[in-house]
Amino acid sequence: MSDRLFVGVLGHRRAGKSTTWNRLFGRTVKTGNRSRMLKLRPGECVEVFLVSGSPQERRKYTRSILRNQQARIVLCSMQYVEEAADTIRHVIDKDFLMHIQWLNPGYSDPDYRSRLVGRRVD
User: Are 111 and 87 a contacting pair, CB within 8 Å?
Assistant: First the structure.
């Protein structure tokens, strides 16, 4: 069994992915180059690596962001688009335990819908 955990938040643009991490850390946080400590309760912290702001929105691949990361816990935003499957494949390939929470599943991104006009969606 793996000793690494991947926690993903999945959602459309503006569904609250970054807000989730900001509230968890108690401040505005962004993807960095190193892991950071997350305070769980007084006197108890855990090392995590954060991918805030979905890689899909920034046109980056999670695989390249996580390439050299050794943190046992990865927190990651994922936009609800087809490219999110690349993130999930990478996590599976690296043998992480995985939990993904879908944020605001009823939320409709009007910009996303407008991009679909004129495209066939199966």
Answer: no
